[in-house]
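Batch 3, record 17
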Amino acid sequence: MSAQLASNAIMFDIRTAKRSIGIAPTQTTVTSIDDGVEAMEMMGARMTFDRDAEIFGESEAADFVYRVVSGAVRTYKLLSDGRRQIGDFHLAGDLFGLEAGAEHRLSAEAICKTEVMVFRRANLFSLAARTPAVGRALWAETARELERAQTHLMLLGRKSACERVASFLSALGEREPKASEIALPMSRQDMADYLGLTIETVSRTFTQLQSDGVISLSGCRRVHVKNRGALARLSA
Amino acid sequence: MSAQLASNAIMFDIRTAKRSIGIAPTQTTVTSIDDGVEAMEMMGARMTFDRDAEIFGESEAADFVYRVVSGAVRTYKLLSDGRRQIGDFHLAGDLFGLEAGAEHRLSAEAICKTEVMVFRRANLFSLAARTPAVGRALWAETARELERAQTHLMLLGRKSACERVASFLSALGEREPKASEIALPMSRQDMADYLGLTIETVSRTFTQLQSDGVISLSGCRRVHVKNRGALARLSA
DNA sequence: CGTATCGTTGAAATATATCAATCGCAGTGG
DNA sequence: CCACTGCGATTGATATATTTCAACGATACG
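Prediction for the assembled complex:
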């Protein structure tokens, strides 16, 4: 694994630790020394992965849960002949690799140099067993993933190439509602494998959206959304 | 809602009630009178829905969880112009309509005359708050749904029409590993909207699989799998 | 037994894929 | 600093899988 284990995190406040795995800190309070110990165990180690480095593989033991600190991650499945379907992209702040079962059901790779925090699943589980709020937060996270997958199903099953690209850009744009400039950490191939298209079709669609005045490209990894409304309408 | 509320269930054993919502009965035991009361509340009312009757709609309050007793259910999303993507089919024994959040994110309809058991979500939640095993079972159920969705994404994004139909039949066939006869409760349109195809393509693929000797059709709702291996191979 | 709905088949249209060539930028070494 | 190199992106021409449009057939239902 082409990753380097960085120094352990230095935070000590349990609320910070819990926020760092996506659990609202107001929902739990420090009530005992055990919780303090738990907090230390919960705090993730930081790791960095190079571009295209594997973070975990499909059907590997899911002993860790990850949170993107910086960079971007793709999760995907492969068919035996190499066809790839990307399930989701995970950007800064996103959790990934959380499984209810013992094994990962998708593989995960860093899209670019990526820093993540790593949490022991066993610690989350034991914490959840004692703190109902934590258990519910884990469930809610899986439910969020499911919701995204269901939206993705609609995109793949029933939308045209143009609608897929527009939906994708719209969704990315909504992560920064103020900014109209979208940075694309992923390649055209990654987008194609996420959208169920080929690179050529993705590329052609970008240039068409550009000539229609909906977006403008400044280098292939930087999109300026000139007409957010049009993009939303094209998303169907 | 074209459904009739049947007489309340008559079971009283809490283990039966818990098994009926998909929680391994061995993991919990009756320890108090409260549990007994809980069991009564848990036990679902039986309801029947006519063909094409709506069970719940997208973004409706998710106050109930359902289990198919007999018949079949489709869950789906619609685009504003009427395009439909079916998320999943639920057959006898399957749970559906379970949400971590307050609202349903898909609509559900009976495919044929269908009997379901209905459970109050609030009861499940309060039980889960006290019984970690129940909470984990709910999470596991959502995780199962997510896993199915991820497989479905692969199908829609990267498989050919023939591979989609073969995958679909294979998966249905695996529900009855012994029997080689598959009953299709759903129409060609339902299959098309599940597989991201048109009815014509589904129909043509069926006839092609038949002329290739992989399946044989006895009436359009009954498929005899003549060559399970070939079907699996065609599923990619 | 008639009628409506669903499924099948055919022919033509089209969106997207495939194959192939060129472009352009980022990194590298002279 | 500039040319060289290589990979990713774009563009073009062509192929093709699937859709669309249309007619016909079968099946279930009243």
